[in-house]
Amino acid sequence: MITSIFVMLIIIQFIIGLLFAFNVVGRNEFLMGFYDAINRLLEPVLRPIRNLMPNTGAIDFSPLVVIILLQIILIVLRNIIMSV
User: Fold this and answer.
1) Can you tell me where the transmembrane regions are (predicted)?
2) Has residue 61 got a pLDDT over 80?
3) What is the DSSP string of 27-71?
């Protein structure tokens, strides 16, 4: 449940970031505040991944890496629990 919420926050952050980058939506106060709050929640997790990855320019792959790592951890934990 918590991991699903975390993944959804990462996806929402990615989508809002794209909307801002391509000027699809204006930078109104509510959306900027919401985006800022999501960034503050996710930055402690994404920053170490960003530091490990090479610079790819404008595209940030760290959210994708975090989602993949979360899924791998969940699969491993499920297999451990099922084998007990």
Assistant:
1) 5-25, 61-81
2) yes
3) --HHHHHHHHHHHHHHHHHHHHHHHHSPP-TT---HHHHHHHHHH
